[in-house]
UniProtKB/TrEMBL annotation:
Spans through the membrane: 12-32, 44-70, 91-109, 129-147, 159-180, 192-213, 234-251, 271-292, 313-334, 354-372, 393-415, 421-442
Protein name: Multidrug-efflux transporter
Mode of membrane association: Multi-pass membrane protein
Organism: Jannaschia pohangensis
Origin: domain of life: Bacteria
InterPro entries found in the cross-reference section: MATE_fam, MATE_MdtK, MdtK-like
Location(s), subcellular: Cell inner membrane
Cleaved signal peptide residues: none
Length: 448
């Protein structure tokens, strides 16, 4: 007999809250960089905005294989197949390592890419300066994503939260030392922020790996047993499930990266305001992302057990919790926007007032897309739980690149709405994705 909706709500909260916390802590790392670099210089803030967007776009493309491990491992656990769990994570680590190596050249030679994308010579040069250091963190970041998926599928999410919080604390301390040159450390500016980020990625992957191997009742999975041996059937399964996830992720992150590029065309002040506002929006979005990951596990377990009633209740429970989080975000954006944006600025900077005013206006638009952004990520989580990734990839690409980005350009430039118009394009793309993905999940579950 399937559990009641109340039980599903409780289990989703128990599983999801540590994931939400770890996602919030992860985004706080980026917000810390934004906060400290914003107080270092507006030029550093603008360069970090575009370069971290570039890094994140590459990361989410490569993380599709890591994310694919979550529903596959959850499905295996639903069938009590522990050997399959080990096979999945082992080949997930292989694919993450290979992907990280393949992405290194794009970060090492980032300046010509930025120039080709219409950024100023100063921003492009500074972005490459940042990425040549930060790029060293790509491999540990992707390996961390794989281990996160493994531990989440096992519903061992507290260690993920602990590791991420430790990384966030380390990032604050290293930023303070390396960006500004405190306590006799060299003043490295952008490169200091990048070096701090690399250190965080290394720490996090080591903590999660140690727990996955030696944590309570974890040794039975023998995670690294025969790690050097290929397992081509599982490798192929992860690849087939993972590459659409990666392209889905990059289509969405590309929407936001494209908006950052268009902000760069409008000038340094719009780009800096965008960096602050999008960081705040990303912080609240992490709540929905964590709940979506919890939903993937809960739906995946029900899918593996062949229980359609539990599957639908797991999806409904996650949707209810996400809706509550949307209401909280709306209160923050509309009621405390000026206070929140002001935290990221040095008010003695001559451009601070312009950035503050524009940042507050952008948060008003963010209140519109928070709802649809939550909708699309929850639907994606449900669909991954039933291991449906290719059709969602097509929906996402069309929604973001055929509707979202063109709408942002038309509204921002030909129609003269400027930065607010670019952000309204985000709303258009995310709304299209929400409708298409939710309809897809309803069609699939209506047949079960």
């Amino acid at each position: 007999m399937s559990d009641s909706l109340t039980i599903h709500l409780k289990r989703t909260l128990v599983l999801g809250l540590p994931l939400v916390g770890s996602q919030v802590a992860q985004i706080l790392i980026g917000l810390t960089d934004t906060l400290m670099l914003g107080r270092y210089s507006v030029e550093a803030l603008a360069a970090s905005t575009i370069s971290t967007s570039f890094f994140f776009t590459l990361f989410v493309l490569g993380s599709g294989f890591a994310v694919a491990c979550m529903p596959m491992a959850a499905d295996a656990l639903g069938r009590d197949d522990e050997v399959q769990v080990r096979r999945v994570v082992r080949m997930g680590l292989w694919l993450s390592l290979a992907t990280g190596v393949a992405m290194a050249p794009a970060m090492f030679w980032a300046e010509p890419i930025m120039l080709a994308l219409g950024q100023t010579p100063e921003v492009s040069a500074n972005a490459q300066l940042y990425l040549r250091v930060a790029g060293l963190g790509m491999i540990p970041a992707l390996l961390t994503a794989t281990l996160r998926s493994h531990l989440s599928a096992l519903e061992r999410t507290r260690i993920v939260l602990v590791a991420t919080l430790a990384g966030a604390g380390l990032n604050v301390g290293l930023n303070w030392l390396l960006i500004f040159g405190n306590w006799g450390f060299p003043e490295m500016g952008l490169r200091g922020a990048a070096a701090a980020s690399v250190s965080v990625h290394v720490l996090t992957v080591l903590v999660l790996l140690a727990y996955a191997m030696r944590g309570p009742d974890m040794a039975r999975f023998e995670l690294l047993r025969n790690i050097h041996r290929p397992d081509w059937p599982i490798f192929g399964d992860i690849f087939r499930l993972g590459w659409p996830i990666g392209l889905t992720h990059v289509s969405e992150s590309g929407l936001f990266a494209g908006s950052a590029l268009m902000m760069g065309w409008l000038g340094t002040v719009p780009l800096a305001a965008h960096g602050i506002a999008i960081g705040i929006a990303a912080l609240t979005f992490m709540v929905h992302l964590g709940l979506s990951q919890a939903a993937t596990v809960r739906v995946g377990r029900a899918w593996g057990q062949g229980d359609p009633v539990a599957l639908r209740r797991a999806a409904l429970a996650a949707t209810i919790l996400s809706g509550v989080a949307v209401l909280g975000a709306l209160w923050l954006y509309l009621g405390a926007g000026e206070m929140v944006v002001g935290v990221f600025l040095d008010r003695t900077d001559p451009q601070a007032d312009l950035i503050l005013a524009l940042g507050v206006q952008l948060l008003v638009v963010a209140a519109l897309f928070q709802l649809v952004d939550a909708g699309q990520v929850m639907a994606l989580g449900f669909l991954r739980g039933v291991q449906d990734t290719r059709r969602p990839m097509i929906y996402a690409i069309v929604s973001y690149w055929v509707f979202g980005l063109p709408a942002g350009y038309v509204l921002g430039f030909p129609m003269g709405l400027g930065p607010e118009g670019v952000w309204l394009g985000l709303v258009v793309g995310l709304l299209a994705a929400t409708i298409a993905l939710a309809a897809r999940f309803l069609r699939i579950t209506s047949r079960s």
